[in-house]
């Protein structure tokens, strides 16, 4: 069995132990409780914002909480002394939580719309958005010792990553907000419910820019992981 497969099995075990899987199901139920009372013709308008909110919970907050749990239980100290590489460790979290987030998005959309939405666009937007939120949550959690130290500083980056909502809703239509990488995933989520038709350049931007941005965040995460964890534990 490959190291990544082992890491995935461990990640599933940890997610179950920390009750994150239970929390994800509860989150999905809460979103349904919010959406179902809304008239059917208005659900499509609300759906992209709701799904983006769910991506923020599962992506940003779940991965940050996992890092703090692992710090508290010294799981990370053990990880850095094993043959498991950083990319395998982080990939296991990204794969696990992205799959969970996409499943929740599909569940919520199907429950509220049946099959009357564009599944590929929903999956693409949810996957890209979750990966960005995951990496952001991971990056912001590494320098801090506890959730209480992390929570207030984390408000700033999560607020920045949610700025595309202002543009998408028409409150502040400025091209500068296209620099925020979550703008692309939000465009795909809107197109999934026929709110807006994507042009070719928007579709290309919506895929390429988030992927490149995520690659940069991944490299930065490796450097911060080395600085704040491996160097402090004496790992190689």
Automatic annotation (TrEMBL):
Pfam families: FLQE3_permease (PF24686). InterPro entries: FLQE3_permease. Keywords: Membrane, Transmembrane, Transmembrane helix. It comes from the Bacteria. The chain crosses the membrane at residues 20-38, 50-69, 89-109, 121-144, 150-169, 199-221. This is Fluoroquinolone transporter permease. It comes from Amycolatopsis suaedae.
């Amino acid at each position: 069995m490959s190291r990544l497969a082992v890491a995935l099995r461990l990640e599933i075990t940890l997610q179950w132990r920390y009750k994150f899987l239970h929390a994800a199901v509860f989150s999905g139920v809460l979103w349904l409780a919010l959406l179902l009372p809304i008239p059917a013709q208005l659900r499509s308008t609300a759906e992209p914002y709701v799904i983006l909110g769910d991506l923020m919970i599962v992506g940003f907050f779940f991965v940050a909480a996992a890092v703090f749990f692992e710090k508290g239980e010294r799981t990370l100290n053990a990880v850095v002394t094993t043959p498991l590489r950083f990319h395998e460790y982080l990939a296991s979290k990204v794969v696990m939580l992205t799959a969970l987030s996409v499943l929740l998005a599909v569940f919520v959309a199907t429950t509220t719309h049946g099959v009357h939405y564009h599944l590929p666009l929903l999956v693409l937007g949810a996957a890209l958005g979750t990966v960005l939120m995951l990496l952001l949550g991971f990056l912001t959690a590494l320098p801090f010792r506890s959730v209480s130290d992390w929570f207030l500083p984390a408000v700033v980056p999560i607020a920045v990553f949610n700025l595309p909502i202002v543009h998408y809703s028409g409150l502040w239509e400025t091209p500068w907000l296209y620099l925020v990488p979550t703008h692309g995933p939000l465009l795909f989520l809107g197109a999934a419910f026929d709110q807006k038709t994507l042009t070719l350049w928007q579709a290309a931007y919506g895929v390429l820019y988030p992927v490149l941005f995520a690659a940069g965040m991944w490299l930065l995460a490796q450097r911060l992981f080395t600085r704040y964890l491996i160097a402090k534990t004496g790992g190689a």
